[in-house]
Amino acid sequence: MADAALRLRTLAEDLLGGARLPVRIRAWDGSESGPPGAPLLVVRNRRALRRLLWKPGELGLARAWVAGEIDIEGDLYEALDQLAGLIWESDEPARSRREIARDPRIRAAVREMVALAGPLPPPPPPREEVGRRSGPLHTKIRDRQAISHHYDVGNDFYSLVLGPSMVYSCAYWESGEDGATTLADAQRDKLELICRKLALRPGQRLLDVGCGWGSMAIHAAREHGVQVVGVTLSREQAAYARKRIAEEGLTDRIEIRVQDYRDVADGPYDAISSIGMAEHVGSTRYLEYAHVLYALLKPGGRLLNHQIARRPQSDESSYTVDEFIDAYVFPDGELAPVGRTVSLLEDAGFEVRDLESIREHYALTLRHWVANLEASWPQALRMVSPGRARVWRLYMAASALAFERNRIGVNQVLAVKTPVSGESGLPLRSREWR
């Protein structure tokens, strides 16, 4: 009988419609098969196959990865890049489940997988997976639970990944060359860019929606003299932000609240920043989100909406969320094409004045975060479970490649609550931000 690695390789290529697998495989019996020098996919346990039998596709693979039953040895980016063309970016037309089930090659491959996997029942999902959810999307209670899953995993872990800036959104790089800019410098430059786009001046009031660990609030208060209210649904973030603010001597200028943005009732504000928060809002609530922020601004006030976007699809009704991201990273998170975001902001009354795409900047940022995590892997495993650390490594590396390949993007949208007079308050050459 052929060794397990060869059987796995043949099985995978049959399931992929005969496409050649671009990675080498090492199986649980120590056997290897595939092109020498290629990235090595390690299948440590046949439980991984049982997961795929019971949950075919991305979620089954994700469960095996999180459980440590499959792994990559060598360059993770190269392996994901090689596999992307087969898994996420295949040019083959999508087939229905009925067509797949009738394919004799697929049926034979499934029988082979059953023989390799063994007769045991499917293993339970890794504990890092979000449990069953019920009820309407994006209620205040459900949003609070989703935010807690992602952000309340330990401030020390986030500090290890994000570095001292503690900014969990795309940085703004001066150059893509290695060493040209530090992560801390690039995050500072991103915060300063936002402050300049908002034209913050001493004495103004800024609302920072989804304030995270307080970095934007601290920068705006310290460098631009504004009064800031930051809101977050994460208690761990709020506690960390308040400690930093006290250490900076800015408690008289910054208030951090554990509060849903829908419950903010002390407007009007001169400006609002929303940095990496709107991805959590969801398509069913996005117009409400835009209306709430519009109502909280003074006439002439500005909104800076910094948000990840996906590419539009020919049939938007067929869009589904990424199973791995939804189960392990951002429960209930949704990405929308930037055109839809702009349209909904305009529907709420905003005048959209500027859109800046900074897609490549996020790829650079993510590669720095992955490097931070990999450089401190033993320390990370003392802070969180091995499964949680594996979630983060895969999520960030795959996301970096998705930005590089233009599968997703990130945009800063500057919008104004333009008064009846029509005076937007922006300079004629708006890119000179002042």
Jot down its keywords:
434 residues, alpha/beta, Rossmann fold, 2 domains, S-adenosyl-L-methionine, Class I SAM-dependent methyltransferase, CMAS
Describe what you observe in this structure:
- The protein has 434 residues and is an alpha/beta fold.
- The chain folds into two domains: 4-117, no CATH class; 140-432, Rossmann fold (3-Layer(aba) Sandwich).
- The protein is built from 17 helices and eleven strands.
- Helix 11 links the parallel strand 6 and strand 7 (254-258).
- The longest helix has 19 residues, at 386-404.
- The model has no long low-confidence stretch (mean pLDDT 92).
- It is an enzyme of class 2 (transferase).
- Belongs to the CFA/CMAS family.
- This is Class I SAM-dependent methyltransferase.
Structural class: alpha/beta
How many strands in all? 11
Q: Which of globular, elongated, flat, extended, rod-shaped describes the shape?
A: elongated
On the 0-100 scale, what is the average pLDDT? 92
CATH C-level class of the largest domain is Alpha Beta
Which superfamily, in CATH terms, is the homologous superfamily of the largest domain? Vaccinia Virus protein VP39
Summarize the structure.
The protein is of the alpha/beta class and 434 residues long. 44% of the residues lie in helices and 15% in strands.
Which secondary structure elements does this structure contain, and how are they paired or packed?
Blueprint: H1 4-15, E1 24-26, E2 32-33, E3 40-43, H2 47-54, H3 58-66, E4 70-73, H4 76-87, H5 97-102, H6 104-117, H7 140-151, H8 155-162, H9 183-197, E5 205-209, H10 215-224, E6 227-232, H11 235-248, E7 254-258, E8 269-275, H12 286-296, E9 297-310, H13 323-329, H14 338-347, E10 351-357, H15 359-375, H16 377-383, H17 386-404, E11 408-416
Parallel strand pairs: 1-3, 5-6, 5-8, 6-7, 8-9
Antiparallel strand pairs: 1-2, 3-4, 9-11, 10-11
Helix pairs in contact: 1-6, 2-3, 2-6, 4-17, 9-10, 12-14, 13-17, 15-17
